[in-house]
């Protein structure tokens, strides 16, 4: 068992607040206990909740509404409690303290009250659907990172220091700061590892001490005073909390100094290390988002991704002289190594590398003291600057080859590995990245950052970061998808663990739309429509818009978030028409860029363009498990006196869902928009029709399509 002691601070005996001895208490962590209200869906079942890590577990708990005044949101605190040693007295303590934890802001009190008693996690959440009457109030907190980091390749460890300035711009009083330490997911006994085990996957459970990732805090001070780290999810340590001695009111700031060391895992998962190649995707204490629902903290899990706060980053990396670096932001000082690593075949256009180092003017460098001396022999420093980004990622590898390109003023940087000369090199990846950006700009709007970096990471697949994608291949689909996320998750920062469909579904849809429009692909949707329908035949259907961790298993998570999520947008595009859908996406982007977004924001934009209420569509396809099935019961035709033919169709609506339906007889089409269970329609054709078909263009997700077609019979 690896307890948070292992993350540094506690090992130094600095925290007396965290329970360290007998962890009889474990609140069941994660958002699984917080569910958006939805109707018609599957009720949460206890069997799909993870088992507690202690024996003799019994689950006990309830949802609590926020009490007290002034909170414009609902907060549900810990809903399930796992008790290792069943005992009424301990339960009573929790009940009592439950009252105290009505707001995340009261965390401090709860933490103190439970010190020595066990470990505790509770999380707040907000229903993702909101009432029509509630106007969305936009704000994001003010966040400013200055980071100095030294990569010690001998120890395979990064040592770093950050000065973090946080300004509270939202409502309420903040008396605790929450950070994520995501690298701590990729090690034994994290929530991630234990969730994996439920599905027989031991990948991080079996990682040895030399191989697993970590992110250890060495010292933390807030406004000059030492601060104790609280790991509410112990033994998981991907969420850390610090009580503020002086709570922050709106407009007030705190400055945090953090020293830490971190290391990616040798088994890559959206980060990793292999030899001298490091993918530093998660590597620093990343402030959690405080939005209108309060603090949004979540242990990092295999199902579900990230949610980040917009920030300014000024990052100095001290690395070996021969390292070649790709990162979020622009290099404002030092040499990232691109010129020296440029491919021999680089064209005139791609060399010398276009740094865009003046994009942010000349931000002054402030020393934190970690890199006070000159660089050691054989080492170099590269300082990066980025604004309006919610994550700073970087990758470094002395074997990277660099190729660059440009799209207007936008700099494209590609870093590929030995062996990629034909699959990535020779401008293949550069040109595909430019194609992706060009097309995405027609849908969303101008790309607002100075650069896109596309690196060949250690792991397969791909992951998006602001201004940067880390990909396992240079396929056009993958590049379009990940660069699309820079828009759909980076600039429009949704909460991926609550609304995975809003970026994975949306961007999967965009990837397919690119294939249709830019590449002229046909029958793009047929396979996924059939796949989702067949999947829903086999499983207990779940609504699309539920927290990622609530999906029964990884397959359900991916099918609902990616595939059915993309079909949601496909059906909406077909309902609205391509032009209106494009306008809606543009409006969504323009009105929400550099803000946190959710379902409401997209629906507002879609309705503004469409001019009609779309709540039924969003509700039906996102928040219910209702299925759609139209059946062509009969198709009979009769010749008229003038020689034409009138065909009468009887159409039954079998499923609970409803959509406008197009029907076709011969070559003539008609639209049915009644919600009746049985509809009749007559269609006139010049010649005698042979067959009739429902939804001829396959724009609807139907549970079965077998009953959509009939041979027309003469009366
Ligand atoms: Zn994706």
Write a brief caption for the model.
The protein is α+β, with helices and mostly antiparallel strands.
Task: Describe this protein's structure.
This protein is α+β, with helices and mostly antiparallel strands and 715 residues long. Among the domains are: 4-114, no CATH class; 515-623, Neutral Protease, domain 2 (Orthogonal Bundle); 630-714, Sandwich (Immunoglobulin-like), CATH 2.60.40.10. The protein has 11 helices and 35 strands. The radius of gyration is 27 Å and the shape is elongated. The N and C termini lie far apart (77 Å). Residues 1-134 have low confidence and may be disordered. The chain binds zinc ion.
| Low-confidence segments | 1-134
Principal-axis shape: elongated
Give the neighbour order of strands across the main sheet: 8-7-10-5-4-16-19-18
How much β-strand is present in the residues? Answer: 25-35%
Query: Bound compounds, please?
Result: zinc ion
What's the main sheet like? 8 strands, mixed
Helix content bin: 10-25%
* Tally of DSSP helical segments: 11
Distance between the termini: 77 Å
Oligomerization status of the protein chains: single chain
Radius of gyration: 27 Å
- Briefly note the structural class of the backbone: alpha+beta
DSSP strand count: 35
Give the overall average pLDDT: 84
């Amino acid at each position: 068992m690896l307890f948070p002691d292992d993350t540094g601070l506690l090992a130094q005996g600095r925290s007396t607040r965290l329970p360290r001895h007998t962890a009889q208490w474990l609140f069941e962590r994660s958002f699984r206990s917080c569910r958006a209200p939805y109707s018609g869906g599957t009720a949460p079942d206890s069997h799909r909740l993870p088992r507690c890590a202690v024996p003799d577990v019994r689950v006990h708990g309830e949802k609590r509404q926020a009490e007290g005044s002034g909170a414009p949101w609902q907060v549900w605190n810990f809903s399930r409690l796992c008790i290792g040693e069943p005992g009424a007295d301990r339960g009573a303590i929790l009940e009592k303290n439950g009252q105290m934890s009505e707001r995340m802001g009261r965390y401090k009190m709860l933490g103190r009250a439970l010190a020595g008693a066990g470990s505790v996690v509770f999380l707040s959440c907000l229903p993702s659907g909101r009432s029509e009457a509630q106007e969305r109030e936009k704000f994001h907190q003010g966040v400013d990172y200055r980071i100095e980091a030294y990569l010690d390749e001998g120890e395979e460890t990064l040592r770093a220091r950050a000065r973090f300035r946080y300004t509270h711009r939202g409502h309420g009083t903040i008396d605790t700061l929450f950070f994520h330490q995501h690298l701590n997911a990729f090690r034994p006994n994290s929530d991630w590892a234990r969730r994996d085990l439920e599905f027989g996957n031991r990948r991080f459970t079996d990682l040895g001490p030399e191989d697993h990732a970590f992110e250890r805090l060495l010292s933390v001070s807030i406004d000059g005073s030492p601060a104790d780290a609280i790991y509410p999810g112990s033994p998981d340590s991907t969420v850390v909390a610090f009580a503020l001695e002086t709570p922050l009111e709106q407009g007030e700031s705190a400055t945090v100094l953090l020293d830490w060391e971190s290391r990616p895992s040798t088994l890559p998962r959206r980060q990793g290390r292999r030899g001298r190649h490091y993918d530093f995707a998660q590597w620093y204490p990343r402030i959690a988002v405080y939005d209108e629902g309060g603090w949004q903290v979540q242990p990092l899990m295999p199902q579900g991704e990230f949610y980040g706060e917009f920030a300014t980053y000024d990052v100095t990396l001290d690395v070996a002289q021969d390292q070649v670096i790709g990162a979020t932001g622009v290099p404002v000082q030092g040499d990232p190594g691109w010129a020296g690593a440029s491919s021999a075949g680089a064209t005139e256009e791609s060399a010398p590398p276009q740094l865009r180092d003046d994009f942010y003017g000349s931000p002054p460098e402030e020393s934190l003291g970690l890199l006070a001396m000159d660089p050691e022999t054989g080492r170099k420093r590269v300082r990066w600057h980025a604004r309006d980004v919610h994550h700073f990622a970087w990758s470094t590898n002395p074997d990277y080859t660099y190729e660059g390109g440009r799209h207007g003023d936008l700099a494209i940087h590609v870093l590929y590995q030995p062996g990629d000369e034909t699959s990535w090199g020779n401008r293949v990846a550069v040109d595909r990245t430019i194609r992706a950006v060009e097309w995405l700009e027609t849908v969303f709007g101008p790309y607002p950052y100075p650069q896109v970096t596309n690196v060949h990471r250690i792991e397969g697949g791909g992951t998006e970061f602001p201004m940067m994608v880390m990909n396992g291949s240079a396929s056009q689909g993958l590049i379009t998808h990940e660069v699309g996320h820079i828009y759909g998750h980076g600039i429009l920062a949704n909460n991926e663990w609550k609304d995975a469909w809003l970026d994975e579904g949306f961007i999967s849809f965009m990837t397919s739309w690119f294939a249709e429009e830019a590449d002229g692909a046909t029958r793009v949707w047929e396979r996924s429509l059939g796949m989702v329908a067949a999947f829903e035949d086999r499983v207990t259907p779940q609504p699309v818009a539920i927290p990622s961790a609530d999906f029964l298993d990884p397959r359900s998570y991916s099918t609902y978030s990616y595939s059915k999520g993309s079909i949601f947008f496909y059906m909406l595009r077909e309902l609205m028409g391509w032009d209106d859908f494009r306008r809606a996406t543009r409006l969504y982007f323009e009105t929400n860029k550099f803000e946190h977004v959710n379902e409401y924001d997209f629906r507002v934009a879609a309705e503004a363009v469409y001019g009609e209420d779309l709540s039924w569509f969003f509700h039906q396809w996102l928040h219910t498990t209702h299925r759609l099935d139209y059946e062509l019961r009969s198709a009979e035709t009769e010749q008229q006196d003038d020689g034409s033919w009138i065909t009468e169709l009887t159409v039954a609506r079998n499923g609970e869902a409803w959509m406008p339906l197009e029907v076709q007889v011969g070559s003539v089409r008609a639209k049915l928009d009644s919600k009746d269970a049985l509809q009749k329609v007559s269609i006139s054709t010049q010649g005698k029709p042979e067959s009739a078909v429902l939804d001829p263009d396959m724009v609807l997700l139907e549970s079965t399509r077998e009953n959509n077609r009939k041979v027309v019979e003469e009366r």
